[in-house]
Amino acid sequence: MAERVVLAYSGGLDTSVGIGWLADATGKEVVALAVDVGQGGEDMNDIRQRALDCGAVESVVVDAKEEFGRDYLMPALKANAMYQKTYPLVSALSRPLIARHLARVAKELGADSVAHGCTGKGNDQVRFEAAVAALAPDLTSIAPVRDLALTRDKAIVYAEQHNLPIRQSAANPYSIDKNVWGRAVETGFLEDPWNPPIEDLYEYTQDPAVIKDADEVVITFQAGVPIAIDGVAYTPLGIVEKMNELAGAHGVGRIDVVEDRLVGIKSREVYEAPGAIALIQAHEALEALTIERDLGRYKRGVEAEWSNLVYDGLWFSGLKRSLDVFIDDTQKYVSGDIRLKLQGGRAVVTGQKSDASLYDFDLATYDTGDTFDQSLSKGFIEIWSLPSKISARRDLAQQ
Ligand code: ARG
């Protein structure tokens, strides 16, 4: 029996041509695997059929949307995950999930290798291959675009020569990756960071400059996970979809940033992630209400570490697993309601409540009924500032 390779298939030009290209270059049978992570657009059945028409011996479609929401987006939300404080890890979150299915299908169908359509310049190649290595150390990873020199020009020629049933997307100058957590747009005129983004780039968000009547939503969380919007229950996936719709209508979550890739390149990225940004803001507000100061401060450091690990392709690593345990433990009391006002590109928290709130009105109030004994503050500050006072005396004496 011929050896087999399972290719992560998107239905686009590169991976469609990649099927024949891989088969020609390696002699292996190519199995196509298309994973639905809520990227929308084409019918997954059309994508499945196209892979067969392009020469795949088998074509598998996985609807992983709920899994993505539950097992990847909710951990990211609990971690308030933002790479370099700006990027909610849209692509970085989908790669380990796709890699998990690649490894699973490879095992089930007796393949000895997997393949993906990434170039050699980005993070996604690292994420796919590092995840596969961690899950199935015996599988080999092949990248036709990178390792077998499949350039875009060659792909177009190949598709024409072999009469492959793909619409020429050569006209689209952007490299776009999307899923239910957001959309990433790169290349084209954006490669000059001085060029402002144009309205055309966006799909999940309306122009935030067009101010509409504000929308107010109440998001209910339970142990760090949003479970309802305005009292209506949703799955994690459903919550993210609903928030994309609500926050997207007000242009929330547009991001334009120069970002540091793992491979050393700085790249200009335009993202839109309306649901992700609104949910992270709501989640952070609920944590502010329910998590004690030191734990919150320590967690913010863990969040940055977690985000770096996931950005760098180490989803299936020991450190990431251990940080997840810590983060999960912090979420025990992160339950309650957050009211968000959506307008003009912003999601603003306007209300917060929780049965596990640490906010004590009687301690906080400046009105009568105050239970905080202000006379204790005087002695507290004496002792708190004692080290400063002693060292300042020394510094002055030594001058
Ligand atoms: N720079 C982002 C990241 O590394 C987005 C990558 C988008 N991928 C793509 N093939 N356009 O996560």
UniProtKB/TrEMBL annotation:
ATP binds at A8, Y9, S10, G11, G12, L13, D14, T15, S16, G117. Pathway: Amino-acid biosynthesis; L-arginine biosynthesis; L-arginine from L-ornithine and carbamoyl phosphate: step 2/3. It is found in: Cytoplasm. Pfam families: Arginosuc_syn_C, Arginosuc_synth. One of its GO terms (molecular function) is ATP binding. Residues 174-390 form the Arginosuccinate synthase C-terminal domain. PROSITE patterns: ARGININOSUCCIN_SYN_1 (PS00564), ARGININOSUCCIN_SYN_2 (PS00565). L-citrulline binds at Y87, N123, R127, S175, E259, Y271. Keywords: Amino-acid biosynthesis, Arginine biosynthesis, ATP-binding, Cytoplasm, Ligase, Nucleotide-binding. GO terms for cellular component: cytoplasm. GO terms for biological process: argininosuccinate metabolic process; L-arginine biosynthetic process; urea cycle. Gene3D superfamilies: Argininosuccinate synthetase, chain A, domain 2 (3.90.1260.10), HUPs (3.40.50.620), Single helix bin (1.20.5.470). It is an enzyme of class 6 (ligase). It catalyses: L-citrulline + L-aspartate + ATP = 2-(N(omega)-L-arginino)succinate + AMP + diphosphate + H(+). L-aspartate binds at T119, N123, D124. Its EC number is 6.3.4.5. InterPro entries: Arginosuc_syn_C, Arginosuc_syn_N, Arginosuc_synth, Arginosuc_synth_CS, Arginosuc_synth_type_1_subfam, AS_cat/multimer_dom_body, Rossmann-like_a/b/a_fold. Signal peptide: none annotated. Belongs to the argininosuccinate synthase family. Type 1 subfamily. Homotetramer. This is Argininosuccinate synthase. It comes from Frigoribacterium faeni.
